[in-house]
Batch of 4 targets.
Target 1
Amino acid sequence: MVLLREIRERGYEGGLTQLKAYLAAFKRQEPEPENRYETAPGRQMQADFTHIRRGRDPLIAFVATLGYSRSSAVRFSDNERSDALCEGLCEAFYRFGGVPREVLFDNASTVVVERDAYGEGHHRWHRRLLALAEQFGFTPRLCRPYRARTKGKVERFNGYLKRSFCVPLAASLKQAGLCLDVQAANAYVGRWLSEVADERIHGTTGERPAVRLVADHAALLPLPAPKANGLILPARGAYPVPVESLQHPLSVYNALLEVRP
């Protein structure tokens, strides 16, 4: 207030809020450093949910990205419950043909019940996730709270998924009088991942994810045999691919594959 009085004595006629807004532009903004953490083949997979559409008819994508190759797996649903998480992880492992040694998550309640419950770095995991980790042999990891950039590889793919797949597919379906729903998204995303996403030149690695996926696949842990423990596992090779149906004709999707990032 003393500063404001002094400025007004010199002819300033505005208010305090206006003054603060003006001075804020001169404050030095230190950008948060972005440290790229590269992992060896087969070492890490980053997993996350991203909202495609909110509201009464939500569309949510579970995305899993291998740290080395940047190859990704996607499963759409209408929720973020533990079933959607576990089914997404299973399909990712089967798409990649193996299991990474660790999977990095955020701090969602479907992942961790209590962080540092048994000491620093020793968390109380959600029982469904823990059972899946024991069955497939991966170690769950948590990113630091309020630091989404820790899993920046999957975060960056989320934006690419929306721009390159969801938006053009929704537009194509709309022209045919159809809506982009969970069924359509899951039916079409498999081919897009293989023919578009994995074949693009990645901005960070400078290589196609499909090429680097060879090294990732060779280093992944083997898939376990399905067990009758209540977990629904997809059959080998059952990752969704485009299928022709009366509701979502394959011809609608053909044009989408001509779109390149």
Note: Strands lie at 44-53, 59-66, 72-77, 102-105, 112-114, 124-125, 139-142.
Target 2
Amino acid sequence: MATGNYLFTSESVSEGHPDKVCDRISDEIVDLFLGTDDQSRVAVETLTTTQKVVLAGEVRCSQEITKEQMIEKAREAVKSIGYEQDGFHWKTMDVDCYVHSQSADIAQGVDSAGNKDEGAGDQGIMFGYACRETESLMPAPIAFSHRILRTMADERHANPSCGLLPDSKSQVTLQYIDGKPTGATSIVVSTQHVEELDQDQIREIVRPHVENALPAGWMCPEDEFYVNPTGKFVIGGPDGDAGLTGRKIIVDTYGGAAPHGGGAFSGKDPTKVDRSAAYAARYLAKNVVAADLADFCVIQLAYAIGVSKPLSVYVHTAGTSRVDENKLAGMLQEVMDLSPRGIREHLGLNRPIYAPSAAYGHFGRNPRENGAFSWERTDLVEALKAAAS
């Protein structure tokens, strides 16, 4: 947890960014499999470029899901995002599917058998984070960056004639004084738009989205408000730049304000601890802060492929904890089973809930009735307070 006075910047990208198009398609396929068989195994990557989508990966399901079904899901995702352009159109784009059955070697290491509990789907480290900068207990720069693009997308979907197109990026720089955010020093928004609009017109379309995303009085100086700083942005999305699943992991998490273990989330079923354990770590960190046991919390979990228990549970509170950090690490393991199976059951992750998480961050979102974003609940607060006392 940094103290003193400094500037910190985070960025977000919209659902129409080429990499986010890939994340959305991959997560739609995860949902397709989990909606058919909640024990499905899925690891699907997507590549996009001009009028082209390529699917690759490995899957396992008790019922047959055809390549044609996966291709149709890709088209539905692209249509939902809003791509109907000459260089990338949901109806006319070419989709290749190279998804195949899961490796038996991986399956035997992960599956439960006899007295062996289900193991982690891979080795790796995962981090969770929470702080008091926003109501969602997320860092302010990434929270505001997401909010700008979400409201722009809402306007585009509600009013297709507004001139905005799907591909956009935002970047928010905040001034911190004594370690607390106090206002924006610069804002950058680049958004794809129709040919007829000029840079000044786009600036005024974007302005209210930025002002409404920030607290009152936090808007940056006018000469630090950059909208499409290179000028025209008409060719965008996969037609302007190739996209790949999993290339926006910092956007997906904490905007660089906290560590990241390195693994991407989208396209992976919840037996992959890259996804499920990162969700668990955020869940625990958020509940620690919500329970007022600390003002800042970073949690690291570590796993080995085929091993059910976490190899380590590390808690760091930067001196803000009301409880000894070693004791806190033990408490967390008492209130939640951190085996891959335990995480999935506690958070209800074996459901088709992942497509909405593919853009605008996996964290800081409101839990939904269908179980999506269950890791944002604060239902461990009372158990943690009881354990601490």
Note: Residues 18-36 form the longest helix (19 residues).
Target 3
Amino acid sequence: MSVPLVAIVGQPNVGKSSLFNRFMKKRLAVVDKEPGVTRDRNYGVCDWNGVEFRLVDTGGLVPESKNQMEKLIYDQTAFAINEADLVLLVLDTRLGLDNIDMRIARDILKAGLECILVANKVDSEKFDLDIYDFLKLGLGEPIPVSATVGRGIGELLDEVVARLPRQENDNAVEAGVIRVALVGRPNVGKSSYINKLLGEERLIVSPMAGTTRDSVDTPFEYNGQKYILIDTAGLRRKYKVVENIEFYTNLRAEKAIEDCDVAIVLTDAVDGVTTQDQRIMSQVLENRRAAVLAVNKWDLIEKDERTADENSVVIKSRLAKFAYLPIIYISALTGQRIDKVMDLVNRVYENNHRRIATAPLNEFLAEVFARRKPPAKQRKYIQMKYITQTECAPPTFIIFTNHPRLVDKSYISYLSNQLRARYDFEGVPIRIKFRQK
């Protein structure tokens, strides 16, 4: 199912990041009185009354600025706007309307985009009448809110959900087909991998980073199993990409990850695991997708029979929270282990859809609880009473306990690791929820 994208845009310091944090119910974006603090984009998946949508917080728009950073932010934000299903144009009610707001509104109208005007900083009723000056923008009636105190946020979210395109399950028509996303940094070999797998030059391959610009879904069959391979792109509208390839890569990877059943995360054996690799893997984890870590360009590494094992130890020590991902060493150039990646994809897909009966689960819980008990908190002893699996893809477990809020993260990690070891959930994120018993 494709999740709609909502972009928050506006001038610097109108409260975009505060609104983003309010929607996400946590402080993810940096908020500061100094304008221009948001330079990198912030992403998140927001849920309102059971409806999910992606949210992107953009930098402050300053059209036709001579400042290099402001020009870069403007280009990035214009890209996000063109990708969005819905735009929230945030305006500062205290300052009122100006020429920059008019210019941004013209750009949105010219692109024919769905837009909601958000009149921010309406902290009380005495500012309510100040919002009607924004009607001159021609984008409809503004919704008054205060991102700081939370006024009007529920009404705004209701309107956002009402204006989103209807979500349809794209995979329903393709029963039995596994959707596989190829994600990774520019030039790690994603398109080369697909071409080698298909045995043809289906996708453009170039040593220049960022060659893949448009969304490419490639049907493929291997050993009787049907797949759709999603090369990391995700541009629904053509847009000129000129700078900051990392920003565009992240946005594309996010879309591809959301649309897939299993993600193949490609890294470069020569470069090792980079910060951007970790960021992309974090996107996989946040979207709760099954995944395989494929280390490409293995043919360029001098090695002996111990090199792969030693390299895996290094990777897993650097990527502790992704240690559940299976690692495979490949070469898209020579074809080394290309087909074995698909065997791993099948395995983690099956793991992701595994359902465990309640009786053996409770035997398991009694055993691991006896082996290690959670530490007491606030002089209260925590008992694990009962466990059941409620969902697959990803496997989700509910544990009934006497003090659900006192279970610490280290004990949750312990339970997750024990579940993986017992029931083979390799490559799969596990969710454990606690309920009062």
Note: The longest strand covers residues 384-391.
Target 4
Amino acid sequence: MAYGGLRALTDVSLSVAAGRFVTLVGPNGAGKSTLFKTICGVVAPVSGTITFGGENLLAHRPSDRAHLGIAHVPEGRGTFVDLTVTENLKLGAYVRRDRNVKADIARISEYFPWMVERGGQRAGTLSGGEQQMLALGRALMSRPRLLLLDEPSLGLAPLIVREFFRIVRELNEKEGLTVLVVEQDARIALSASHRAYVLEVGRVALSGESAKLRDDESIRRSYLGY
């Protein structure tokens, strides 16, 4: 992937197995968000391939990738601030053609009980943490096979971040949801995930089981910033 001749990603190869929780960590400018934009089709790669469930994603328009089962929670949440909580959730089901939307709102509300109580409240009046939870709930309404989370901790208090990752891990464990998260808070991301990749200047510098990377002191100092 390149911007104006400057290559943002080079020879990046990673794999996310079904049912796994994988995290992508690294410093600012490492290319983490660029990789997500490439998967979603916001930017086009100069070369290489992206395969999802046996499908060549590059053969599909960005607007069609959600129909394949990819849900993206972008950096900055991206809720529809003038719509209510319930309206935001229903918009997440726009790719579906079944009649189970109400049932899924009820299911998702088991993770976020306040969404039922405040379903008529405009999203723009929610706190930052509540908007992030709503963005996650909206993404889940599409019944994704793969959930992409881009910097979910950005601008949130540590307590809210821990609760957010607890819920995502619960979704992964209970429902088998496959998760790929880009996150600057390496400590919490590595604690929640199964496997991790460390990006450095557009390349994969390290990869392995999250617990091993988290507990290796030399790796923490050199790559993870704690």
Note: The CA atoms of residues 135 and 197 lie 25 Å apart.
